[in-house]
Amino acid sequence: MSRFRLLLAAALLCTLVAAGKADARIPIRVGISEQQAAMFDQSAYQRLHIHHVRYFVPWNVMEHRDQRLLARNYVKHARAAGAQVLLHLSTDDYRSKRGHLPSVREYRTQVRRLVPYFRHLRVRDFGVWNEANHASEPTYRSPTRAADFFREMYRAVKGRCRSCGVVALDVLDQRGVEKYMRSFFRHLSPTYRHRATIIGLHNYGDVNRRRTTYTRSMIRQAHHYSPHARIWLTETGGLVKLGTSFPYSPTRAAHRLSTMFSLANRFRRSGIDRLYIYNWTGTGRDARFDAGLTDPDGTPRPGYTYVRRKLAGYLR
Question: What is the annotated signal peptide range for this record (predicted)?
Fold first, then answer.
């Protein structure tokens, strides 16, 4: 009996130690933002045990069969891999300042078709509009229209699934972002300000220039109007290349990923509880933009190695 008690005590101690290690993880869920479903079949991805991914679609994806089937294929692959998809709406024309800004009626018509279609595929999180303040998106000059879109998306999603998430506003850390956010929130009624419980931020500038300026100010703006809003870094990561500002360097990108995690942890008590690293598949030396954790052929880069090591201390 004495030996049994010793064994029982030892087993209980092991359980408590394991629970303590789990509790010690930083309560930020780390996912990947990626457009290629092939990621899910790669062993490097599978070793990360990621449970959250992000994918963006044209706002009128229901009008375009090929785009819709690509999105459906992505969602099915994600679900088979045990990952939940944040589905974010975006422009259908990425030429700077050329995309069509839908009317509220057009947007309403599309989300009332899109939401049930993807809810049937068990998508639970939806984003109103990706990077709304950037010139590649037609919302960049119209924060009030972005606010109108939030109301429509909220009604479409929450009418079907009260526990589903809606990223109310998604913005990039660039000059003028605070003004954009103020205009967005001031256009909302008090009821919808209260309902804006998830705000998406892209803080590439802070991460890659090793500063806190915009991350801090964007969170401050969000909480001024919606004090209990959760903050999701819906796109962030180390830049392998960006034009001439950041020449091609996977090593530098890996170092900047340490800043990404440090920033997220620093502002965790300010509401950051989810982070999507953009992205998985790199585009190579000749591309203008590259933030991939892997080379175009799937070979892991230094950034992948760093992320894999850090993930042990975070939720997924």
Answer: 1-24
Say what the pLDDT of residue 292 is.
Answer: 98
Q: How far is CA 69 from CA 64, 89, 123, in A?
A: 9, 15, 15
Q: 127 - beta bridge partners?
A: 88, 167
Q: Which of 202, 191, 215 is nearest to 279 (CA)?
A: 202
Summarize pLDDT for 62-95 with one digit per residue, the tens: 999 999 999 999 999 999 999 999 999 999 988 8
Question: H helices of the chain, where?
Answer: 2-23, 43-46, 65-80, 104-119, 143-158, 177-187, 190-195, 204-209, 213-225, 250-266, 302-310
pLDDT band at 261 (very low <50, low <70, confident <90, very high): very high
Tokens linked to 53: 């991914």
Give the chain's mean pLDDT. 94
Average pLDDT on 207-225 reads: 98
Query: To the nearest 5 percent, what fractions of the chain are helix, strand and coil?
Result: 50, 20, 30
Residue pair 257/307 in contact (Cβ under 8 Å)? The answer is: yes
33-59 burial: b if 16+ Cβ within 10 Å, else e: bbbebebbeeebbeebebebbbbbbbb
- What the chain holds in terms of domains, given with CATH numbers, is 28-315 (3.20.20.80)
151, pLDDT greater than 90:
yes
